[in-house]
Amino acid sequence: MLPAVCGRRRRARTCHARDAPIGAPRGTRRAAPRSRRPRAGLRRGFREAVVTGQLARSILEHARQHGAPLEDVAGVIVAGIDAGASAKTTLIFLDRSRRPALVAKVARDRTAEAGLVDEFEALRQMRGDVVSAAALQIPRPLGLVRIDGRLALIMTGLDGEPMMSRYYANGHTDSAEDVGRDFGMAFTWLSDLQSQTSSRSISLADAAARWAERVLDRYFEEIGCSAEEEALFAEASARAQAFGHVEVPVCASHGDYWMGNLLVGGNRIAGVIDWERAEPRGLPFTDIYKFPTSYGFYLDRVSHRTGARRSAHPGRENLRARWARYGDWPNLIGFAYAYFGFGWFPELVRSSVLRQLDRFGIPSGANWALFPLFLAEQALSLPDPSFRAGYRSAIVALSAERESTWLWNESAAEPNGHAVIATERPAAHDVRT
Known about the structure:
3-stranded antiparallel β-sheet; 14 helices; alpha+beta; single chain; 2 domains; Aminoglycoside 3'-phosphotransferase, Chain: A, domain 2; Phosphorylase Kinase, domain 1
């Protein structure tokens, strides 16, 4: 086993292997802030995540056999270590200019292997279906192989700065201009992907019924169903039937389209990673809702403007007392602010979602047929009980507070003059693989 020095991150841990045959070159920039402790080491439960030099060499050899240009690999960063049952260890191989040349995801146990298989199949189909520049922002799978008893997904690396780095930069989410730029980049890339992969259309009623069939039985069985939830999903179904004449596209869906999976280069998306929840023939709605929902979750944890507490988002704190009745999930107030609040950020969320639906000719009133299914799907995306309970509290609150959101009340979807909308498309995509 190799000792490691790990930086603390909110979602995952990133570390440099020390004294490995293939190690990070001196001076390599860390992917996460330095831990306050000089040697954080590996926490209990991380034994299976430690990577040996032999494993790294075997991965490189396999990639070279499949034509990957890896003559100048200078080091490897070990990233993505966490304690989840489905966790994977991600190895990022750097070239001499410190850019990602190759990425390998290694399953820690059998539970994690299914996700690698799903991502490999999704990437193979996605790379074949996308004919625009967006294909260059999707990793190219090089193989799914078992090395030293571990299943490994090997793919090309993508260059770019994680959008999360900008998100957590001092003052970034306080700036309507900066946040609007993030939304513009994310939805421009998503629009290109959906347009390039759209194959046919189905009625909104059929789309919602198929989505509900896939999600709700699992939700009721694994999470539960109160009277409020049952009524909400019944109303969503009825609303979908009312829009039975509306057509929606069948297109590629990333499935986890949030800022943690987006790489940025300048003012454009340079890469999109983590495709294990992707559906090459899916519906567009999960990605449309996922980005603004996740973006709103953490605003209180990154706002650093001096003066009044969270002065850039005053409407957020106004919701705290009322929404405390629905639970203590840390993300609940961010959810409330994004979809029930007032101010430039909630208006950006509203205008962005409505613009995406308008691209397909979908009326704003259809949100109530779709958004509850999105929340139920998100609740099932992780097996963690507290995570599931958090999303469930959001579903209950959505039902109780419906009159206060444009998702339910069509008249509330009318523009009010406060939108911060990115109307200019970023320049053409630029990516290095």
